[in-house]
Amino acid sequence: MVLVQAIIDGILVGTTYALIGIGFTLIFGVMHKLNLAFAAASIAGAFASLVAWQHFKDLPVPLVFLISAAAAGVLGYLIYLTCFRFIPLKSPLATLMATVGMLIFLEEIVTHVSDGKAQNYPGMLPDARWTLGPLDIRVDYILVFAISVAAMLLLLALLYRTRLGIATRAVAQQPVAAQLCGISLDRTNAATFVMSGVLGGLAGAMIGSSAELLSNLLPLQLTVKGLIVTVIGGLGSIPGAIVAGLLVGAVEKGVETWSVLARDLCVMLLIFVFLVAKPAGIFGKLNVRD
Amino acid sequence: MDYLYGLAQTIGVHTIIGLSAYVVLQTGQVTMAQAAFYAVGAYVSAMLTTLWGLNILIAIPVAALVAMVLAGLAGFPALRFKGLMLVVATMALGEAVREFFFNFDYQIAKGDLKVGPAGAEGFRQIRYFYERGWTTAEVAAFIWMFVIGIMALLWWMDRSRIGAVLRAVGEDELAAQSVGINLTAVKVSAFAIGGAIAGVGGALYAHYTTHVEHTAFGVLMATFAIAYPILGGLSSVFGTLIAVVFIQGLLIQWLPILIGGELRNLLFGLLILLAMNLRPRGLIDPRVARTLRGLFVRSPNA
Amino acid sequence: MKKSALFLGACALALAGFAAAPASSQQRVIKIAGFGAKTGPVRSFGVNSEAAMRAAAAEINAKGGIKLADGKMAKVEVTFDDDRCQAEDGINLVRRYASSDVLVAVGPTCSNVAEPLFGILQKKVSDEKDSGLRFPIFTDVAVKAGLAQISEWAFRNTPNEPLLYDALFKYLQAKRPELKTIMGGKEGDFAHSKAGWDAVMKVAAPKYGMNIVGEVEWKLTDTTFTTQVREMKAKNPDVIAIAAHPFTLCGVVKEMARQGVKPKLIIGLTSSSSMETMEGCARQVEGAIIPTTFAPVNPEAKRVAGLIAKQKGSADLHSTAAWENVIILKSVIEAAKIDGKPETLAADRRKVRDALAALKETQGLLGVTKRTEDREAIKPFVFVTAKGGNWVVSYDPTKPN
After folding, report:
1. What pLDDT digit, counting tens, does each position of C276-329 carry?
2. b/e burial code for range C90-106 (CB count within 10 A of at least 16 → b)
3. Is C92 within 8 Å of B246 when comparing Cβ atoms?
4. If you measure CA to CA, which chain C residue comes closest to B208?
5. Cβ(A95)–Cβ(A87) below 8 Å
6. How do the domains of chain B map onto residue ranges?
7. Which residues, at least 6 apart from A260, have a Cβ–Cβ distance to it below 8 Å?
8. Is residue A286 exposed (0-12), middle (13-18) or buried (19+ Cβ within 10 Å)?
9. How does C371-400 read in b/e, with b if 16+ C-beta sit within 10 Å?
10. What is the gyration radius of the CA atoms in chain B, in angstroms?
11. Parallel, antiparallel, or unpaired for β C289-292 and C382-387?
12. Among A100, A110, A237, A255, which would you mutate to test the B interface (most chain B Cβ atoms within 10 Å of its Cβ)?
């Protein structure tokens, strides 16, 4: 029963990992580039909303989340401008390094804003609990789950039902052909960064909110977790990132009931299992060349 | 003066770890495992000198060898992956090694106190240099002997067929394969050479800081290892050295004296951003590298 | 090419900058260098220590300064550098101090800097062959047990946690005999927190009749604690001891509140008795008890807390140790009768070291601190309890009631 309980917790928490994974995968899918500053921007967005929350007392929680999403969206655009826009496509290492620079920069801004201290962040329904027989479920995790699923559906609708979405997918598949059809690469790429930023900001806010705390320790931690989810899910695959997020969450919480120190090692092992057995990830198509 | 020698030690050790990643990056593989081989070199050599009293000139080659074998072994599975997959796979490997040292507890009594790796507490009292009365300048010279040796080796490699082969694999694997280059051999050797160099770096690190613990070998260190050669440029070994001087000397040591320490990390991130925007192929890009080479070696058609 | 030439030039200039020796001035000056983390996750430690050191120096200078061997007065000059909590930075900083005219250093804030740093110092002063640095360091914050024994040049004025918790559990046995069972929680990947439970509380609790019913752990950067708190709920202990820093301490007590885990008492780690905990989770941590070596319990402590606040720092058990260190160094330097001239620098450092080693006790803000043979401190302490968003002294051994 302890294990079942833990796995339920893990799946619910895993939705936030999924959102972070989607952010990485979306950018990778469109630009075939890695944005290592993504998770840091997500947490920086959450910190922006924290500042707003501290400044205007008693801001409603949904508004705090929206501020976080908006701020992270803006940061997403800034990252595009500073790390991708002006660096030649032929230098993948340069963009990678530039995003590392951005990661360090954002992390330090967050550190200065918080003076390196953990900060109180508004939680969702802190007193509500839901018991289901022997199981005990945190209501705010259900909310996190619901909001994440809604955000993912919205994203999918955006990608498959709007012109912008079609353009994004076209660029992802055939950048040159897309350009020949009159799609602006620059605009589409920028839009992708804003979209993924908004998702990340939402995830950052929810991660903070479910812990009721924000800390400058989070960016590096989430970057590693997001990359793991992205790889297990398959590069560029949104459904893959979702399933992988839930899987990583469940494995983490499940192993935790046995040993906390073994937890991260098990997640690493999970990567190796996937890399060897299914190198393209859960739903990913195997690219011979990247 | 002592301070400058001390700084030279730091710059030397970081140059070595940067060069270890330089070799692997030549073949187009972005590796986050260098911190792991660095850790292996540090722990193995420190145990040899501190626990069993071996000479450091024996301890360093042994440490390098162990790191090389491990890196070679890691190179085989890593062949399956490319790009982001490789980044994450090597990161996972690095973290696994770090977790290993986090749990690694082996001490023996030496005199009235116990020495050796003590898990999360780390491994203290690696005082080989100081116990033997080496001055800061002598330690710096010792470290730079290795730096110069490794740089000379890589400089020669860059200009030889081996370098051309590594670069060919890095530029275009398919093309390299089609002209008969054995991808497996090249990639695994690059990993192994990189591992050996990282092992030497780790050994020197452990002895000049006298204390190692798992936190020193995390994702951050792995990132720095690849940051040096990328920032410096993959066209010349001097790029890595300049990047280390830039980061360790200028940003970390000099900037705080100039503007106060608090803004350092902010500027640090921004300067990396700026450098990559202005010089996407590194501070020493192929053009500068050619000019540099021209200074030292008369080119055949000059 | 031009750019790189410029760049190389800049590098050369930078190196030249390091080499330039500071000019000696007419006014005699004693330089005390502070260092610690002012960037990264533990930035607040460095910020507070710097404020405390500057406040102490201002106070000494306002009273005329430090008396030298020839009877002249010298001003104290305090500097503070950031070591980013990185071992190599700390080592390079201290090498820089040692080759400049700094007399003694106060720092660092991180144990992982202190440990290698003490390793590069000369181990035994009598060992002429040892080429380690001969430079006195007086640590204010880095708290990991037993560090000063690494070198005879290393001194610390940090809390001795085993003694503090021993006293706490003794007090609990006398005053709260109804507390029978205890459960521990710790950050398993952080040496100080791990030792805080494994080597300190876990040892002290059974000595005073408390029964250990279990322990859980988590990692420094974790954000969810459902599994661990469920285990606490299942064991239902009277006391829960949390050996963790404010970030996960707050995470855990918040999860405890959600799951309705209400132990009769929560015990925290010394470093958590700070305002950071209150900013993070004042409501949930209400009633928790922590032993600490500083609280504004007497007029002098209150006055110093005010002075530190004026320098934009907050007074806690760590930063007030930095204050005490500067004040102690003043009397040590005067007692050592140093000359304070450039040519006597090495001898002066040795004199300061010997005088520090000779100290049997020092005057701290909470009372008399005893110095041990292995250059550590046994500081007076109080127990503080979280009450309405503040840490309130709940027991002061000097005022038994």
Report:
1. 889 889 999 999 999 999 988 889 999 999 999 999 898 989 999 999 999 999
2. bbbbbbbbbbebbbbbb
3. no
4. C120
5. yes
6. 2-226
7. C188, C216, C217, C218, C219, C228
8. exposed
9. beeebbbbbbbbbbbbeeeebeebbbeeee
10. 19
11. antiparallel
12. A100
Looking at CATH, the fold of the domain delimited by A2-277 is given as ABC transporter involved in vitamin B12 uptake, BtuC (1.10.3470)
Closest partner CB to C88 (pick from B130, B131, B209) = B209
Two tokens, residue A35: 């944005």
- For residues B178 and B166, give the distance between their C-alpha atoms in angstroms, rounded to a whole number: 14
What distance in Å separates the CA atoms of residue C272 and residue A88, rounded to the nearest whole number? Answer: 49
* DSSP letter, residue C76: E
CB contact (8 A) between residue B84 and residue A231: yes
* A115 contact C CB<8A: yes
Interface test with C, best of B121, B123, B247, B292 (most C CBs within 10 A): B121
Question: What is the three-class DSSP state of B115?
Answer: strand
ipTM beyond cut 0.85: yes
User: From the candidates C35, C45, C82, which should be mutated to test the interface with B, based on the most B CB atoms within 10 A?
Assistant: C82
Whether residue C280 and residue A261 make contact (CB cut-off 8 A), yes or no, is no
For chain B, which residues lie within 8 Å of any Cβ of chain A, measuring from their own Cβ?
25, 30, 77, 80-85, 87-89, 91-93, 95-96, 99, 102-103, 173-174, 219-220, 223, 227, 230-231, 234, 262, 265-266, 268-273, 275-277, 280-281
Measure the CA–CA gap between A205 and A42, rounded to whole angstroms: 8
Q: Which of A21, A17, A53, A37 is nearest to A213 (CA)?
A: A53
| Residue boundaries of the structural domains of chain A | 2-277
Kindly determine whether residue C254 and residue A211, on different chains, have CB atoms separated by under 8 Å: yes
A38-55 vs A185-211: helix crossing angle, rounded to 10: 60
**Residues in chain C, pLDDT under 50:** 1-3, 6-8, 10-25
Task: Point out which residues pair with C386 in neighbouring strands.
Answer: C391
- In total, the C-beta contacts within 8 angstroms joining chain B to chain C are 131
| C-alpha dihedral sign at A281, A282, A284, A286 | positive
Is C208 in contact with C176 (CB distance < 8 Å)? no
pLDDT digits (tens, 9 = 90+) for B156-190: 998 899 889 988 988 888 898 888 888 889 999 99
- Whole-structure pTM value: 0.89
CA–CA separation, B10 vs A90, rounded Å? Answer: 33
- Cβ neighbours of C122 in B, within 8 Å: 130
